[in-house]
Amino acid sequence: MAGDLETAIRESMNAYREVLDEFAALGSLSLASSAEAIAESAEILRTRLEKACRIHLAVNEALAVDTAGAEDPMMREWQDLVMRVGEENRLLSGRFRGMMSVVADGLSRARGGRAALKGYKSGGGGMRGGRLRRTS
Questions:
Q1: What backbone phi and psi angles, to 5 degrees, belong to 9?
Q2: What HEC string does the chain produce?
Q3: What mean pLDDT, rounded, does the chain reach?
Q4: CA-angle at 76, arms to 51 and 65, nearest 5°
Q5: What is the pTM of this model?
Q6: Phi/psi of residue 86, each to 5°?
Q7: CA distance 54 to 15
């Protein structure tokens, strides 16, 4: 394997490991976490993913020059890591879609409760609270 390809693969593997670390950090957050903490972690993840993608392109360019490097065991390790990042991304995306559904359901219920409470408020039409009386 040529030095350029090996260097690019090592850098890419480091970048993807950083992405996996951030997936773990983001995955440990819960509905109770602050919106700021979630946004901060998501921004870190986005930055790390962009870096990993840039380096991934460098690996592809180096592979175009050193096609024999595709058979190297380090290349297999790199491919496994890329697959793992894809799987973690899929799992985390599913988890967050589930969390968003829970939040949306809670908001919907809260809106429904507010609408129901509005029905109990006086419209200013002179109605007074009191006991209902049966009339014949």
A1: -65, -45
A2: CCHHHHHHHHHHHHHHHHHHHHHHHHHCCCCCCCHHHHHHHHHHHHHHHHHHHHHHHHHHHHHHHCHHHHHCHHHHHHHHHHHHHHHHHHHHHHHHHHHHHHHHHHHHHHHHHHHHHHCCCCCCCCCCCCCCCCCC
A3: 81
A4: 70
A5: 0.68
A6: -60, -40
A7: 10
Q: Could you give the CA distance from residue 59 to residue 74 in angstroms, rounded to a whole number?
A: 12
Per-residue pLDDT at 72: 84
Are the C-beta atoms of residues 76 and 26 closer than 8 Å to each other? no
How many whole angstroms separate alpha carbon 6 and alpha carbon 73?
11
pLDDT in tens, 24-68: 988 887 766 777 888 888 899 999 999 999 999 999 998 888 887
